[in-house]
Structures are given as C-alpha cells and as structure tokens.
Amino acid sequence: xxxxxxxxxxxxxxxxxxxxxxxxxxxxxxxxxxxxxxxxxxxxxxxxxxxxxxxxxxxxxxxxxxxxxxxxxxxxxxxxxxxxxxxxxxxxxxxxxxxxxxxxxxxxxxxxxxxxxxxxxxxxxxxxxxxxxxxxxxxxxxxxxxxxxxxxxxxxxxxxxxxxxxxxxxxxxxxxxxxxxxxxxxxxxxxxxxxxxxxxxxxxxxxxxxxxxxxxx
Length: 217
Hints:
Pfam families: TetR_C_15 (PF17918), TetR_N (PF00440). The protein is mainly alpha-helical.
C-alpha cells in the first residue's frame, strides 16, 4: 500500500473535479462509501477503480470525473476518517463539566468507546494512514487534522479545569493523541482481545497523565 501510494503521489494529489451541486456531492459520497465497503470486504487487497464503480452503481468514467485513480479515492477516505475525530472529541467538550474523578473517568470511557469504534470500523484504512505519515508529500494532510485534534483535546482538558494553562493543555493533548494512535495501530495488528487490552492500558495511561492537572476531587 505504501509503495503504491508513493509511486502515484503526484497524480493522486492533483485537484479532482469539485462537487459544486448537491447531486455531485452525493455521487462522491457513493464512490467513497463503495470504496470503504470494498476495503472492509477485501482486507489487505486494494479495490480496483472498476470494482468501486460497480459497487457504487456508476460507470468508471463517472468515477474518473471526480478521482484520477484509486489512490486518490483512498486518500479521500483517509481524510474523511481523520475528520471524524474532532466531532467525537467535541462531544466531550459539550458535555457537562465533570466535578470529580469518577465523573471524569466516565467521560474518558465514553470518548474511548467512540474513538475505538472509529479504528475498528476502519481497520483496512490504516495502511493508508501509515503511508500518509511516512510520506513527506502526504504528511501535511495528517498534520492539518493533528493540530485540530490536539487543540480539541486541550480545550477538553481546559473545560474540565478552566485554570489549566493553554501551553500545558496542548502538551498533554499532544501526548494523548500520539500515544493513543500509536498504541491502537499496534493493537489492530494483533487480535481483538489484544486490542481491547491495549485500549484499557492506554486509558489508564491517559488518566494517570492528565488527572493531576485537573484539580478534581
């Protein structure tokens, strides 16, 4: 996967036709949904553009109007996956502020349930995510979302403790994001039981890391 993306990075990043109307946006959604279903069904095999078009109920020519190749489709799927995390974290910011450690623990548990599902449901996209991280031309795609996720983690911690300094909150947010992502990738390469155990370990590490900064009873 990484090798294929590297060879076609330049063309994959070329601007595709932008959906200006609702109908066009729905076509793009059909293409992406079909690609995601196929990646889940085929595991490590990358679906062909023809297979994606057939699953979406479109001609190959229609797909090429929006995406130059299958790598570009996978990149857009990765963008969509990355963009789902801010919404999940924002839910915790919008929730009532926890006033003690037990309440905060429950909030962390809710966040882990939501974020774990994002990884488990999109396990076949992880090679694309890793390719983005390791490719200098693609890395800015992930960096953009990383900055937003760190800022949201920081905002969440400041929501819990309004007196927490922004610099400290962002440092903690960085650790939360990096440790959580790296450990989940390791877990996904094992079996489900190991993934769940690693999730529990990461949750314990998070609590040990941030609780001293939150001024909770």
